[in-house]
# Entry
Amino acid sequence: MESGIKKAMKKCLSYSLIMGCFAGLVLFLSSSFITSSFLHHKVSSTPLHILAFSLPFLALSSCMNGYFSALRKVTKTVCAQVLEEFFKISFITFLINSFFPSGLEYACISLVLGSTISEFFSFLFLLLLYVRDKRKLASNGYQDTNYTKQILKISLPISFTSYIRSGLSTLKQMMIPMQLEKSGLSCEKALSQYGMINGMVMPLILFPCSFISSFSSLLIPEFSFMNARGEEKKMNFALEKIFKFCFLFSFLVMGFFFCFAEELNQFIYPLIDVTFYIKLLCPLVVLMYIDTIVDSILKGLDKQVSVMGINIIDLTSSIFFIYFLLPSQGIKGYLIVLFASEIINGLLSLLLLIKETKLKIDFVNWLIKPFVGVFLLTNIFSYFVSISSLIEFIFYIFLFIIMYFILLIFLGSLIKEDIRIIANNNFCHIKISYQLLLI
# Structure
């Protein structure tokens, strides 16, 4: 079994490297066509050239993340993703602040270069962890198994739908600046506003999602195992607790971004004002985080093709909205598209999960009470808290978190059983409990 893991991983890494290099080469060679056809030569092909070099590292990192997730070593994937997001925000912040005054060209290069460097560091970190972990696998007990056939049997159908999704996603991203120009904005202004939202605000909002993403990837084998054994009671209990904790965490993050938007802008992007967009887009946190969990659970229930289908529906509807809304509404239309996309994707995925399981949403304890707690806290902090230094900012973050959970206990959303589960690391004896609580 263990020698089989080495053989399977060797093949998976080889295929990932080949496909990553192929995708990078295609992007590198087509970069001139993309910049001339869709960006009107307002930005050179340099950002796309830089991005092309990141694709092989991205492919290999995904493969190694799958390895650690399959072996339930989620702490390693968590560390890698947190490290990547930390480097991404750090490098982009430094590069943007250094080169943004030089013009749009340097701003785009800064965004792409920061992402590429962070991807490279994440790859190196995962590689070191994988090499170290691989040494622990025994080399005896080799069995001649056709892993190529098994790998292709799983990967080809998913890859096919993924390519459709990626193609639609690429079309969507290319259409946005073009349609924004039709609203009367110049190409530079359209790219600037689009880049501000996608390259600065969204990475900031999605940073805490690193924890959710690592957690959700571990749910796939666990729910697959419970589903195969027909353990409905265990599955329903796990679903209830997972969704409850995820909603509570999501509202906490949303409240944090809304309450401390100005301070985050001041300390991270001092030269550019994105406070309005942080406050406006922070409600997306709840939709995005829950959708991440739902998709992983559905994949564990062998509904990965349905998940891809929902993603394709989401992208198709987004392209429709982009085509008709952006020329008349401009950047407001793009913001509407963001919310419409997350609502459509999240609602369809959640309805599918409810159909496949016995999940019942507790609107009062999972949604209303956390929202009330966040609403009270943001108003209290807005009126009585003034932050002037980074140390004060860190102190008030911890105070905000502590007060949030105290309010949840007071409102009855967080009960003794939930606290006992966290304190005792007892998640209905599910093997992933310890890793879940580490996240």
Observations:
- Confidence is low (pLDDT under 50) at residues 425-439.
- The radius of gyration is 23 Å.
